[in-house]
TrEMBL record:
Domain Ubiquitin-like protease family profile: 1-149
GO biological process, one term: proteolysis
Domain of life according to the entry: Eukaryota
Keyword annotations: Hydrolase, Protease, Thiol protease
Highest classification ranks of the organism: Eukaryota, Viridiplantae, Streptophyta, Embryophyta, Tracheophyta
InterPro entries reported for this sequence: Papain-like_cys_pep_sf, Peptidase_C48_C
Recorded family membership: Belongs to the peptidase C48 family.
PROSITE patterns linked to this entry: ULP_PROTEASE
Protein's UniProt name: Ubiquitin-like protease family profile domain-containing protein
Matching Pfam families: Peptidase_C48
Length: 179
């Protein structure tokens, strides 16, 4: 997931004020105790995170070590949207968990004052997201969603399951060319 995230960041020359965070960042945020402020302020890496001037932040979330979903934090609308390639997963719960942690996170990282002062964040599962048919392509689907959203492309047909094999080869070729 990290290598594919790197490709999306490298290749998305988006003029939009968007950012993709890596899975390690997500793990750090979701694993912290949402009640203990000292844990958050003791973190050495978080104060260097700068989200000032951003509209959206994309965060891949690993659900119970089995499934990947994409969370889109809309800093202007104060909404966390979840893009899930398997409607049966419980991804909205993880977005809700992220919503609980955002006010604490925003006290530690660099954000616009309006974002820092927002107390309530809502979570919503995005309807009509292209769905996977197999059980092992969720990571690739998340990267495809991220790429499309950062470039302003529609999710369908860009992220359709029928295009997964072609996308897998496309990403492999891009990774090979980096060496």
């Amino acid at each position: 997931m990290d290598a594919l995230s790197y490709l999306v960041l490298k290749d998305c020359k988006s003029e939009k004020p968007y950012k993709l965070m890596n899975p390690y960042f997500t793990h750090q945020v979701l694993s912290k105790d949402d009640k203990d402020e000292d844990v958050w302020f003791a973190d050495r890496c978080l104060p260097s995170v700068d989200w000032r001037g951003l509209e959206k932040v994309f965060i891949p979330i690993n659900v119970v070590g089995m499934h990947w979903v994409l969370a889109e934090i809309d800093l202007q609308s104060k909404v966390v949207r979840v893009y899930d390639s398997m409607k049966t997963s419980r991804s909205r719960l993880h977005a809700s968990k992220l919503c609980v942690r955002l006010p604490l996170l925003f006290r530690v990282i660099q954000v616009h004052p309006d974002v820092r002062e927002a107390k309530q964040w809502n979570a919503e599962a995005v309807a009509d997201v292209p769905q996977q048919e197999g059980g092992t392509v969720c990571g690739l689907m998340v990267i495809s969603y991220t790429e499309a959203l950062m470039l302003g492309l529609p999710l369908s047909p860009h992220c359709e399951y029928a295009n997964v094999a072609r996308k897998r080869w496309h990403f492999a070729l891009r990774l090979w060319n980096l060496r």
